[in-house]
Amino acid sequence: MSRRRFIAGMATAASALAGASGIALSQGTARAAGNRLPLPELLVPTQQGGVTVFAMQAAFGTHELLPGVSSDTAGFNGSYLGPTLRVRNGQRVRFEVTNGLDEELAVHWHGAHVPPEDDGGVHAAFGPGKVWKPEFTVKQQAATLWYHPHTMGITARQVAMGLAGMLIVEDDSAASKALPSSYGTDDIPVIMQSVAVGSDGGIRYASHSFSEAGMAFPVVVNGVAVESDPLTFTADTGRVRLRLLNASLSETLTVRRIDGTRLTQVATESAFLTRPVEVDEVRMPAGCRAEVVVDVTRETVLEVAVETGVGRRRNSRQSFLTLLPGSGGSRTTPLPSRLNTINRYNVAHLKPRVIALTETGGVLGINGVSGTTMKAMDSHEIVVREGDLELWEVVNRSPRNHSFHVHDVPFQVISVNGRVPTGVDLGWRDTIAVHRGATVRIAMRFTDYASEKYTYMLHCHMAEHEDLGMMTSLKVRPR
Question: Does the pLDDT of residue 356 top 60, yes or no?
Answer without folding.
Answer: yes
